[in-house]
Structure formats: structure tokens, C-alpha cells
Amino acid sequence: MNTMNKQEINEFIEKMEEVGDVWTEEQVNNVYGDSSFEEALADRQSSLDHMSDIISKVIDK
User: How confident is the model at residue 24 (pLDDT cuts 50, 70, 90)?
Assistant: First the structure.
């Protein structure tokens, strides 16, 4: 398995901050330490999309 290096962890943090999803390096390591950069981004994007769907449904009620 291809785990993220420090540069990729920082890039993940920067990309998440762009959408208001703030992470620390320690949090990224704890949650995605065994994932590749691409896997971590895809998983987090899926989670954000899911949360957005839930929020939209709650607001629409």
C-alpha cells in the first residue's frame, strides 16, 4: 500500500482547507495514515458529499 508522505499530507490539508474542512497533520495521520493521497482525497470528498446531502435534506424539511 502506498501511504502518504509529508508533502502529500500537507497537500491534503491545503485542499481540505479550500472547502473549509480544517485538518491537522496529526489528524490526517490518525485517519488516513495507511491510505494513499488519492484514496484519502476520494474518501474525504465522499464524506463531505454525504454530509452535504444530509444538511440539504434537513434544511429542506
Answer: very high
